[in-house]
Amino acid sequence: MQKKYDDAVVILGNGESRKGLNLEKVKACYSVYGCNALYRDFTPDLLFAMDKPMAIELDSAGYGKTNRVISARADFCEGAEPWNGPTWMTGSCALLYACREGLRTGKIKRIFLVGMDCSSNDNQMKNNIYRETLHYEGMAQPIAVSNRMAKEVSLCVEMFYPEIKFFHVDSKNKVIPVMLSHAFRTESITLMSREDFEETL
Question: What is the CA radius of gyration of the chain?
Fold first, then answer.
């Protein structure tokens, strides 16, 4: 599928900041790398699923037979490609893969982080569109989890900037989530409101 922009990738997390975003319009413009349960509602160009329960769910749905999947537990999902990288959180793995592809091909110059909130709400319940659904029941997101993702994301940015430009898209605060604020040099990442991002579609 020909994209409007062939030099950019959207890493689509499942944080609540992406609620209401027209994902089909995003996919028409950008290559989209999604995470885990996203497949229930939308088919990205590439889906990442690092955990065994999600790999099994994808296998039961037959998703890997007709769609591209990368998984650390590919042995549990027919058709999935094995993940070749560190044992990171799913969104971080998607970001690292995009960065590596950018370096390998020289084509990816911009990466947008959408729905990668890296933060928990006041009750420390998981900031995830799919919370309280299968494999997400009652999941808490303590500070350590958010901090881990922040460190993984920041490591990618530090390794691949300035060859790749990074943008963090947020629908509310228009600032880097608190868990990421310590991780990024100011010049490494551009803050972008969702309104501004949607104007690119």
Answer: 16
